[in-house]
Amino acid sequence: MTKEEAAGRIAKLSAELEHHNHLYYVEARPEISDQDFDFMMKELEALEKQWPQLASPNSPTRRVGGDITKEFPTVLHRSPMLSLENSYSREEVQEFVQRIAKEHGRTTFTLELKYDGVAISLIYRNGELVQGITRGDGEKGEDITANIRTVRSIPLRLHGHPPAELEARGEVLMGIREFEQLNAEREREGEEPFANPRNTTAGTLKLQDPKIVARRHLQNYIYFLLMDELPTRSHYANIMQCAKWGFRTPDPRRRFIEQADSVEDIMAFIAYWDQARHHLGIAIDGVVIKVDDIDLQEELGLRAKSPRWAIAYKFPAEQKFTRLNDVEFNVGRTGAVTPVAILDPVELAGTVVKRASIHNADQIAKLDLHYGDMVQVEKGGEIIPKITAVDLHRRPPHARRVTYPERCPACGTVLVRDAGEAQHYCPNEHACPPQIVRRIEHFVSRKAMDINGLGGETVDTLFQAGLLHDVADLYDLKQEQLLALGKGWGERSTRLIIDGIAASKDIPFEQVLFAMGIRHVGETVAKKIARAVGSIDRLAAMSLEELTAIEEVGNVIAESIRDFFGAEGNRRILERLKAAGLQFAVAPGRQKAHDGPLKGLVIVVSGVFETFTRDGIKQAIEENGGKVSGSISRKTNFVVVGADMGPAKKAKAEELGVRLIDETEFRRMIGA
Ligand code: IVH
Predict the structure, then answer these.
(1) 348 assigned to some structural domain
(2) Is the pLDDT reported for residue 396 higher than 70?
(3) Is 578 a catalytic residue?
(4) The pLDDT of residue 385 is above 90
(5) What's the Cα-to-Cα distance from 272 to each of 256, 366, 536, rounded to whole Å?
(6) Residue 379: in which H helix or E strand, if any?
(7) Whose CA is nearest to atom 6 of ligand 1?
(8) Which of 235-244, 414-423, 604-613, 621-630 is the most confident on average?
(9) Whether residue 26 is found in the same domain as residue 60
(10) Which domain holds residue 556?
């Protein structure tokens, strides 16, 4: 076969495979057998192997997974990815409709299902999928294109005559059956099951291996179109046009999308789906009501984070009764002892619930829980369901009351409860095993010391093996000690751990402070304190008054900090960590934040500014996690433009399509 012949055959096979893929995954009316499909796929794979230069990044072979993605570059969204304002009642929906009617006259609404998945932005150029981006913080997301290509209902090439450039936004989700199968598989393999389809989808989209993503069978629906010139001035018609281009869109025949002129119609659609959603096979958490007329949408405009032309109606949280079999008391990192209900498995909002949170001792008392009680579990937006009521009529005779333990279930120490706090704590912080393990787990976690290769299970093993007694022991670990642990501790994985520990010595003070795990000092508070105080030595020496003078630090946090530094054990660990070379001060020249709203962005500054000096704006970029670059290149995410931008820079930015933003927008991005 000549190269030309191969190219022809590859093009033909690709087009046919995508056609059948579309019939199967979007239209649900396959025309050929799975076997014939696989057969064509095999032929294409073989040809691409023989002629790698002819393999397109959008080849159907990429649907089963391409190369490992090393990192997901940060991408600025062309326009922010907004969320929706929520409503929960007929009154609120009525208010929304009437407000618009009063100001703009009667208008038509498009009703759609509110898919409970992960928002995604898909960029197509000349009909080819070029980028799939997560929502991220709404302003910028992560480029996860290789993973997106594995989602079968997302077209790799658009049908018909799409414009040169378009962006389609929608939701990626996992079907409930797929979710349950995956969890069954995980449980068979002794892995912790996933909490719900939405979180599983979010986690799956961030996997580095697209092959695993492909096996998770994610789905997609498109509900929003962005183009320089939209095909029509009706949202509904635009969505129908998206379907013609090959996207999977809300299906009018199955009433996933409908038009309405009145609150009555809207409420009927909502009532229908509040029931019908249980047989849908995917999770929806409400209905979205959108003004259909694009001109009116533009007139109504946006709020800070959501459009004024749309509103979400959220279904009420699902509740069910089930039996309480047992209560476990779990000891957390800070010693807090939390009761967890062990339940007869019950299906709730699309997932099987076996455990629920009971929060604290007061909650047990308030519900007057007894073993064997029929309890009401509720699942709102949160991952962990909670117990909200007890059916006293169904209490078994002679049921035993659930009592909160007086002693720590792990180490037997008498529990304490601080005045004004809901939680009981085990005060034996330096010898209570689960506290130590959880503290080390927290210390190594991504937002803290970010130590590669160490996770919950490995930390537990190292603790059991007697290699770790506290976080400072990490820095004394030797690779030989890890290798000696035997099976599963190979050269490569142990090297990764040792290198990860060494690299953590460069983690900035803000994160180190968070890693210390001081009670009530979360990520944000740690950052604020680190920046305000500058070093751990100063922090340790501060009085309560000085501490409460820091932004966001109240009495509870201040006292917790004093307690932390007052404890002899903590001081000893601190000294050892200092000796190991961790960052305990915001050193000059090291003030660059590794995190912040501009994390991962390369930014060029040009012109003169009103509220910043040149150095000031650069510093602001670095303090918010961004990187300043002197010249515009393809890597530049955007240019902050002041007065008198140089014409050469302007031309270059235009040529490369790099976005320009002004000082006001920049200030908004960094929350100034
Ligand atoms: S429209 C400006 N339509 O809900 C347009 N969003 O709570 C904003 N969502 O971030 C989105 N189904 O991820 C829209 N039919 C639908 C939706 C939908 C689910 C998600 C979307 C959004 C979130 C807001």
Answers:
(1) yes
(2) yes
(3) no
(4) no
(5) 11, 36, 58
(6) strand 374-379
(7) 114
(8) 235-244
(9) yes
(10) 509-580
Nearest to 143 by CA among 74, 206, 205, 209: 74
- Provide φ and ψ at 213, rounded to 5°: -60, -45
CA of residue 83 to ligand 1 center, whole Å: 6
> What is the band of 645 on the pLDDT scale with cuts at 50, 70, 90?
confident
Shared domain for 119 and 180, answered yes or no, is yes
In this model, does residue 591 exceed pLDDT 50? no
- Count of domains for the chain: 6
Task: Give the span between the Cα atoms of 238 and 217, in whole angstroms.
Answer: 27
Instruction: Give Cβ neighbours of residue 546 (< 8 Å, ≥ 6 apart).
Output: none
Pocket test for ligand 1, best of 171, 247, 273 (most atoms within 8 A of CB): 171
What's the pLDDT at 519?
85
> What are the start-end ranges of the H helices in 542-609?
544-548, 555-566, 568-580
| 297-318 mean pLDDT | 92
Closest Cα partner for 395 from 376, 374, 368? Answer: 374
Estimate the crossing angle of helix 90-104 against helix 263-276, to 10 degrees. 150
The one-letter code for the residue type at 33 is S
Closest residue by CA, ligand 1 atom 14: 223
- Name residues contacting ligand 1 (CB within 6 A): 82-84, 112, 114-115, 119, 171, 223-224, 288, 307, 312
User: How far does the centroid of ligand 1 lie from the alpha carbon of residue 462, in Å?
Assistant: 44
pLDDT value of position 589: 47
Longest dimension (CA), the chain: 85
What is the model's pLDDT at position 203?
Answer: 93
- Indicate the top mutation candidate among 122, 256, 288 to test ligand 1's pocket, ranked by most ligand atoms within 8 A of CB: 288
What pLDDT does residue 671 have?
Answer: 81
**Ligand 1: centre distance to CA 310 (Å):** 9
**Average confidence score pLDDT of the chain:** 91
> Are residue 532 and residue 566 in the same domain, yes or no?
yes
* Average confidence (pLDDT) over 521-533: 86
> Which CATH number goes with the domain that contains 495?
1.10.150.20
Q: Do residues 326 and 256 share a domain?
A: no
Flag whether 401 is in a domain. Answer: no
pLDDT tens per residue, range 114-173:
999 999 999 999 999 999 999 999 999 999 999 999 999 999 999 999 999 999 999 999
Nearest-atom index, ligand 1, CA of 135: 10
CA of 167 to the centre of ligand 1 (A): 15
Catalytic residue, from 114, 290, 527, 649: name it: 114
Regarding whether 134 and 160 lie in a shared domain, the answer is yes
CA of 294 to the centre of ligand 1 (A): 17
Do 105 and 238 sit in the same domain of this protein? yes
Q: Which of the four pLDDT bands, split at 50, 70 and 90, describes residue 453?
A: confident
Cβ proximity of 512 and 451 under 8 Å: no
Residue 410 covered by a domain: no
- For ligand 1, atom 5, the nearest C-alpha belongs to 82
Among 343, 378, 394, the domain-final residue is 394
80 assigned to some structural domain: no
Residues 330 and 235 in one domain: no
